[in-house]
Amino acid sequence: MFSTLRSRLWLSYAFIIVTALGVVAMILFVFLLRNPILSRQTLERLRAVQMVVKERENVPESQSITMAAEKASQTFGVRVLLYSREKQLTLDTYADTEAPLPFPKQRILTRNTTPLVRDENGANWLYSIEKLPDGSFLMVASPRPRFSILNVFNDEFLPIILQGGLIALLLSLVLAFFVARWIADPLQKVVLAARTLPSDEIRPVETRGPHEVQELTRAFNAMIARMQASQRSQREFVANVSHELKTPLTSIQGFAQAILDGTADSNESRQQAAQVIYTESGRMHRLVLDLLDLARLDAGTADMTMSPVHLQALLSAVAEKFSPQLQRAGVNIEVKVLPDLPTVTADGDRMAQVFTNLVDNALKFTPRDGLITMQAAVLNNEIQVSVTDSGTGIPEEAQAKIFTRFYQADPARRGGEKHGAGLGLAIAREIVLAHGGRISVRSGLGEGTTFDVFLPLIKPRLQK
Q: Rounded to an integer, what distance in angstroms lies between the CA atom of residue 183 and that of residue 170?
């Protein structure tokens, strides 16, 4: 019955409210026991008798006070006592029937409590005392009234609890119900949304309720957005991988079938078929290696051997490696590095992979007689390495996606020829990020493209 959060919250609030009312009722009950109405009424009667005894005219004071005391004691059935200035008992109308009453002691800490005094037999007396003009003291006393706890409970306590307490309890429970709904309903919506995961059609949950619940809802909505983006990325990744593998697999399957069924019946045709199979299988092999690289970099498990790296030697080696391709394409390359450039702590092989990908990308889009420039310089506390080509540039809308996996900016710039699977720049970005650096692109149509790699001069912490 109380398995839901809403019912448990309501039950908790109800328990707190009932407990609070119980504590208030207990305090009220104790107060009534310590200062009941019957005692208050007796004290009022004693004060009234005290006023009557003090009213005396046209008679000697000593006789009037004594006579008034005796008369009031008989008329009202109270005990009237007189004390001298020295607080010695001079008159007691109950001296023959009751034990003597001592002069009451003043109690500072119990000033507001019921005035009680005990006689020599231990009986409690309610009293009212006042100092007279001649310095003596007039005290009117009456035995403390006996009362029944049950009578106090029924006459004074129970009606208050049944009326005020019941109304307060009902109003509090109604308020607790709405507070429980205010807290539980947004959480219930989060639970219902979580049960529908994973789904692309799920909508963000409306932020309602207390501040903490709203923070939880916003965090849940952000998680949904990240999850949906991850799902879309995963589907696009699978679709792109399938597309990239489909073409070489089709070529391999077709030419292998030609060899098997004898369609390639000459040495030249079999040589051509074998060459296509070899080329396409190499393309698949490179794609698989690139995907493994990305997976390791994403997981933080890629091997990184950090050591001092001289960028002059590294960039020159990369340029030398592309000499055959540059000669065939008719493209020149220059390396511009300051002679006093400090070393950078990095994985030399991985950084060579980054600049190899950048030069390879620049070579694809640089026309004949074009120029590729590699230069490095110190900028603040970083080393900036730039790879610039003199190609046609990258459209502004494509620059934001240039580091996305499998994204290729307008292959029509090279006559519709498609180069690679679009993983080179994505791998370069992940490697630079793993070194604590960053990579960016600057380009304009007809103005060429520049990729800037920024590496920290201090030893980077490897990302995990």
A: 20
- Please answer whether residues 178 and 151 qualify as being in contact, where contact means their C-beta atoms are separated by less than 8 angstroms: no
Same domain, 223 and 107: no
pTM value is: 0.51
Does 322 lie in the same domain as 413?
Answer: yes
- Yes or no: say if 47 and 62 are a contact pair by the CB < 8 Å rule: no
446 and 323 belong to one structural domain: yes
pLDDT at 439 over 90: yes
Structural domain ending residue among the three candidates 299, 320, 351: 299
The CA distance from 129 to 72, in Å, is 15
Report CA-CA distances (Å) from 420 to 55, 399, 424: 121, 18, 8
Q: Which helix (H) or strand (E) holds 226?
A: helix 211-260
Domain match, 269 and 311 both: no
CA distance 265 to 258: 9
Q: Supply the DSSP string of 157-182, one letter for each residue.
A: IHHHIIIIIHHHHHHHHHHHHHHHHH
Residue 14 CA to residue 12 CA, distance in Å, equals 5
Give the total number of structural domains in the chain: 3
Closest by CA to 321, choosing from 250, 366, 372, is: 372
What CATH number did the domain enclosing 108 receive? 3.30.450
Q: Kindly report, residue by residue over 271-290, the tens digit of the pLDDT.
A: 888 888 888 888 788 778 87
Contacts of 322 (CB under 8 A, 6+ apart): 333, 359, 360, 363
Separation of alpha carbons 262 and 227, rounded Å:
51
Question: Tokens 């207390």 sit at which residue?
Answer: 210
- Angstrom CA distances, 20 to 14, 161, 185, stand at 10, 13, 26
pLDDT in tens, 89-104: 889 999 888 888 888 8
Flag whether 416 is in a domain: yes
Tell whether the torsion through CA atoms of 169, 172, 178 and 180 is positive or negative: negative
**What are the φ and ψ backbone dihedral angles of 125, each rounded to 5 degrees?**
-125, 135
Q: What is the pLDDT of residues 15-47, one digit of tens each?
A: 777 787 777 777 766 666 655 667 788 888 888
Between 368 and 106, name the one with better pLDDT. 368
